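Late entry, 6-O-phosphono-beta-D-fructofuranose complex.
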Amino acid sequence: MVKKVAVLTSGGDAPGMNACVRAVVRSGLKNGLDMFVVYEGYRGLVEDNIVQVDRNFVSDTINRGGTILHSARLPEFKEESVRKIAVENLKKRGIDGLVVIGGDGTYLGAKKLTEMGVKTVGLPGTIDNDIASTDETIGFDTCLNTICECVDKIRDTTTSHQRCTFIEVMGNRCGDLALYSGIAEGVEMILTPDHPLPFEEITSTLKRLRNGKKKHSLVVVSEKLYPNIHDFAKEVSKATGIECRAEVLGHLQRGGSPSARDRILATQYGVHAIEALLDGESGICIGLVNNRFVRYDIYEALNLPRDKHIELLKIISLVNR
Ligand code: F6P
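Prediction complete; structure with ligand written out below:
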């Protein structure tokens, strides 16, 4: 059974990561484990930036955005020689368990460490909601609310000037942020990698809407769908005669105090990670599926197909335009 456990955050930061670290640290201590934190994700493992902590280390962090452990992306972690250094740094302190909070890349790193003798558990921390083994990742809800606040403001000025505004949101090739925020905002169109529309359909829809009573339109677009959303807006302007603007919401989407939902979810995930390690599990990740926390082998999780939300897409076509 594990006796000493470390926790790290890796990849893009997400609101709620601190609440999750807090839950891992505190539930580990309550179960009699020695608890450690690793700064700067896998880089901190390699550079030996590891510190033993007590319960006060995570006081007053449940409400804080970002990650107090800092985060990093370390492509070199794919190399076994680099991972060996990380394993040595854990071993010399007697750390036998590791909880990683991040996305798919973070999970893969954890699985590789498992194969080198470290017991690992992955928790889904990313605003993108792009992890197939869970219905909801830590940070998604907060980010969604942040996007909605922004779109509310953009709506005011779009309405005043009777324009069409394209709002580009994050998601890293996953359309969930666009899809859910688009539904929550009742926008005219939602364009995602799973649901792109041909240029002609976009322009004809906008022209049809313009000929009705409502003179403005909002369109939410997933990042990376178009090389440059500003150029795209100009092309639509040219083709329709409608004045168009584009807004890229950018990194503000990752910031801010986590929502109550994310704080609770993150706390639950953290407690489940320690439980799994105490049960002798390793190389697994925790997901929330149909409101139940489940354990998956990381490789199995990484190969699961992602839900394309066909049901939600139907709703949009019925309600939004
Ligand atoms: O994975 C989170 C995310 O914010 C994605 O939505 C986005 O594509 C990417 O990270 C941006 O990464 P960076 O902060 O390294 O520019």
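The chain has two domains: 4-139+258-302, 141-254. Will revisit in the morning.
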